[in-house]
Amino acid sequence: MPADLFSQYSMRLKTGDEIDITDMRETLNVLGYEREEMVEQFQQFSVRGGIIDIYSVTRDRPCRIELFGDEIDSIRVFDPNTQRSIEEIEEIVIPPAREIILFPERINDQLAVIKKDYEEAVERLKKIGNEEEAEYLEEKSSEALEKLTEFEKFPGYEQFMPYFFEDLNTVFDYVDENTLLFLDNPEKIKQRVASFTHEINETQSTLLEQGSIILSYADNFPTQHQFLQELGDFRGATFTDAFQEGDFLLSPQAEFTYSTKGVEPYHGQLELLVERLMELKGNYKVVITLNSDNKVERIGDYLRENNLPAVEETNSLKENHIVVTSGSFSEGFIFEDIKLAVFTEKEVIGNQQKKKRQTSIIEEGVEISSLNELNPGDYVVHENHGIGKYMGVKTLEIQNRHQDYLVLKYADEDKLYVPTDKVNLVQKYIGTDSKPPKLYSLGSSEWKKVKQRVKNSVKEMAIGLLELYAERETVEGYAFSEDTVWQREFEDSFPYEETPDQMNAIEEVKKDMEDPTPMDRLLCGDVGYGKTEVAIRAAFKAAMDGKQTAVLVPTTILAQQHYNTFSERIEKYPINVEMISRFKTKREQEEILKKLAKGEVDIVIGTHRLLSEDVIFSDLGLLIIDEEQRFGVSHKEKLKNIKSSVDVLTLTATPIPRTLHMALVGVRDMSVIETPPENRYPIRTYIREFNEELVRETIRREMGRNGQVYFVHNRVEDIDKKADMVRRLVPEARVAVAHGQMNENRLERLMYNFYNNEYDVLVCTTIIENGLDIPNVNTIIINRADLMGLAQLYQLRGRVGRSSRVAYAYLLYESDRVLPEVAEKRLKAIKEFTNLGSGFKIAMRDLEIRGAGNLLGAEQHGHIASIGFSLYCKLLEGAIEELKGEEEESGEIELDFKQDAYIPDDYISDSKQKIEIYKKIKGVDSEREIRDIKDEINDRFGTPPLPVENLIKISGLGLRGRRLGIEQIKEKDNLINCYFRNMETLEGEAVVKLVDTFPGKIKVRSGKKPVLGVKTEVEAPLEFLEEVLEKLRELLTSN
Question: What range(s) does the Helicase ATP-binding domain occupy (predicted)?
């Protein structure tokens, strides 16, 4: 898009500006923003009354514009996860969301030209005998022209840019002409431009022959000559290796030659560093950068003790000073020309500089609520009536009072209307597979029987878990010592900043190890989330006490991966790490086993081979098990025997649902790492028709940056044909094939070779779904992605993007096939995956159920299917609390008022958000939460109408009532009656004082279930009742 148009159509809004909300809605649509009920991702906007939410493509977070009439009253940045405002700003710039704006007048002007070009392209294909391709292009042209006529966006519509804009711009047109450019290695830049231009021309020729495009495609890109010419118009600096011949691209006005060299590593041998600094002192300015203030102080003190002039102020950069400061360079260097020597922590101590985590814009740990994702037609579970189908929210007027109801459909078309104050009894049905569950009949006893059966099974399991837990508490194990100096040094050498979840997990593991009771902790977290580092620190701690660690993994390749990671982290310490696997010769294995028995191996890593009879430990103290569910029954039995006496840390990458985690508190020690690693780029995801040229270009592009590619084809019958196709398209690629029907040894060897970069492309089935962490694989092509489930696509896509490189995922479907709507939605959902998107939540839930089944066993997996996951967790938690003798919270309170207390459609029209707010209001547990929900409603939807205010007040009265032991508050005639559970509450001096405080306005009736009646003939009856209940609380507390 031309830069002047980009600037012209960027909206700049300030508080106090006047806008027409209808015009703005239309403008945002033209600019490429999509209207949604709730804004969660880039390029979205929503309008609710006088509030506009917009996620501009140039901002980290979305903004909320609140109007007073037509005037902008405020602009607030809000969190897309919580939907709550964070800060107020004065203005916002909203640029176009896409590269092309679909202006109706420009489209109308050019439709005839586009149609003519399509017709010519079809004729050209027919002339050269490409009848099939011509037919295909004809179909594509009618689709494209229809979409353009309707001004609709569609995949690939950017190719029409040359028709709608007279001059297309490059990035240089967006940059001020006085900008200084810095070019690193101009010869390589020139080569890359030439190679890119060649790729474009080659791709265009192929696509033209296939009938995928028309001639205008190449006009989207500058030619090599245009690009280099525009680049040469700028001023700046070029960096090249000395004596490099060739074009500098920018016309040099002066040339400078600098010489730099690296510095030697000292690995903590500070006396050698002192010697070197003595040589440099006086001739060089010296800077030492370290990653913490503590180290700055420690190293500074050491240098001063050795008569070196160490200072900590960076402005003291003089020849006779050595500046020791906290900072970050990747490695040290000596700059001879300006006599500057820089040493980093890498050379001084032997550590990499800690990489700071980027602040995530995603708030972690917010539980995924199931109800606010309800769509009509979804299955739900009502605790008392069983599985039904949610049909929507309906407002009913009964006895002159409006109230909202969830409408649930059961067998035989029966309907149940659930008042929103009972919303806590309804949960979205989350089962164990994609098959729809059976609808129950209202009034039948079948649901009660099923629920009771699950309840009994859950209780049995809870008893077993508690017995195991209690049994373990009685076993006397080994209490590890507190952290040593080496342990602290070793942990300081971790090259990344730990995530909060990771730190919690590390502390929990160490605390367990220092306790004499044997540890049995489960650590959950996705691949690459930092579980291995927790395990390494535990193993290091064990080694510090002279204890051995066994790391048990399900596959040989995983053993190799762990061996590499452990060895690399621990190499600077006198700790011996070994691996036993089938990749070791028999003699090598025998040698390792001898050393293990003598205590000469501190950490051994291996597959189930470690469970063999000939494996004898000298003093095993810690067992680390990775993905225990992937071991066989016999291996698990052997593990049980070992587990009873040593500390055990089990790692799993399958997510465990938070609700299950909470239910198991006190019977299963669990740590969860939910915070994603830093510096991970989002995976760029494309949905495309299958196209050989696309496959060729994608593989070549990844190989061009020395990376590897997964090509997923989930049909073993013709997987070899697909591999042959890849070899034909990219002859230079080293291609391997992997699928589950291969011999296990052969498959392992092949995967091992791929891991070691002996192949460029792995054509495989979905066996890589639970695969390795291979940072060098950063492109995945998924063929026939439309046939796969959302969770499966999520996991497959997650195999890439595990390094600091940008990763790509291509989801392909057959070119001659119209996608079913369900498949299209599924692919769109994965394309838009973020930690906030509903697609992510659905996929995560699918995976979590799998995780729950792994953790609890097959029988419980069946029970989850029969009653739904949410109710299952509730029953499990209840069973555990009952067995532990923990008191149940005070029961529910019935609330029946005459006032309208509901959310009108003209305030919140979206039923999902409406249910979300009802659920939050129903769930309030403190005065602070009531204030918080008021603030949230005001913030997100504007000033609430009276029925919403009543709803919040009544919820607050329910909260006060529960605390006072009231089981029902009912408005009848001119009284609001509060019915108490027992007689003690309304006896004694407190009641006398209460009646005296409000003479003639309240009545008290004693008995087994006493009643407090509050007259409604007052100005604000709800506020008055609140005042009476608050006074009663004060009087009861003071007695």
Answer: 512-673
User: What tens digit of pLDDT does each residue of 503-529 get?
Assistant: 999 999 999 999 998 898 889 887 677
| DSSP designation for 482 | P
Residue-level pLDDT at 266? 80
Cα–Cα distance for residue pair 28/627, rounded to 1 Å: 48
Q: Identify how many contiguous H helices and E strands the chain contains and give both numbers.
A: 31, 39
Nearest residue to 239 via CA among 313, 183, 169, 189: 183
Residue 341 amino acid letter? A
Residue type, 91: E
The answer to whether residues 240 and 267 belong to one domain is no
In a domain, 458, yes or no: yes
Q: Do the domain assignments include residue 356?
A: no
Cβ atoms 110, 149 nearer than 8 A: no
Q: Which candidate, 377, 426, 391, places its Cα nearest to that of 918?
A: 426
**Distance from C-alpha of 577 to C-alpha of 583, rounded to nearest angstrom:** 16
Residue 360 lies in a domain: no
Give CA–CA dist 617/866, Å, rounded: 46
- Retrieve residue 777's tokens: 């694989």
Nearest to 78 by CA among 48, 97, 52, 96: 52
φ, ψ of residue 406 to 5 degrees: the values are: -85, 130
Which residue type occupies 888?
A: E
- Mean pLDDT is lowest, of 437-451, 643-657, 971-985, 997-1011, for 643-657
Q: Of 257, 277, 305, at which residue does a domain stop?
A: 257
228 and 283 housed in the same domain: no
Q: Which residue has the tokens 């980093």?
A: 344
Q: Which domain holds residue 124?
A: 104-166
- For residue 453, give both structure tokens: 């059966």
Q: What is the token pair recorded at 802? A: 């595990």
Q: Say whether both 549 and 422 belong to one domain.
A: no
Quick one: pLDDT at residue 826?
63
Q: How many Å is the Cα radius of gyration of the chain? A: 34
Rounded Cα gap, residues 534 and 525, in angstroms = 11
Query: Does residue 526 share a domain with residue 380?
Result: no
Regarding whether 736 and 589 lie in a shared domain, the answer is: no
Structure tokens at 554: 């399900």
Give per-residue pLDDT as tens, 305-363. Answer: 888 888 877 666 766 778 998 887 778 899 888 888 999 988 887 655 555 444 333 33
User: Measuring CA to CA, which residue among 268, 448, 286 is closest to residue 866?
Assistant: 448
Q: What six digits make up the tokens of 315?
A: 């402005």
Same domain, yes or no: 525 and 636: yes
CATH number at residue 480: 3.40.50.300
β-pairing, 520-524 vs 647-652, is parallel
Q: Tens of pLDDT along 608-630?
A: 888 888 899 999 999 999 877 66
- Domains identified in the chain, total number: 8
Residues composing the chain: 1039
C-alpha to C-alpha distance for 448 and 445, rounded to whole angstroms: 5
Q: What is the distance between the alpha carbons of residues 922 and 900, in angstroms, rounded to a whole number?
A: 16
User: Would the pTM count as exceeding 0.70?
Assistant: no
54, 72 contact by CB (below 8 A): no
Separation CA 24–CA 26 (nearest Å): 5
- DSSP characters for 919-954? HHHHT--SHHHHHHHHHHHHHHH-SPPHHHHHHHHH
Could you give the 3-state DSSP secondary structure of residue 826? helix
Amino acid present at 679:
N
What is the sign of the dihedral through the CA atoms of 837, 843, 849 and 850? Answer: negative
CATH number at residue 391: 2.40.10.170
Are 711 and 830 part of one and the same domain? yes
Tokens of 74: 């405020």
Distance between CA atoms of 492 and 1026, rounded to whole angstroms? 55
Cβ atoms within 10 Å, residue 724: 14
Cβ contact 30:103 at 8 Å: yes
Q: Which residues of 163-182 are buried (b: 16+ CB within 10 A; e: fewer)?
A: bbbeebbeebeeeeeeeebe
Residue type, 335: F
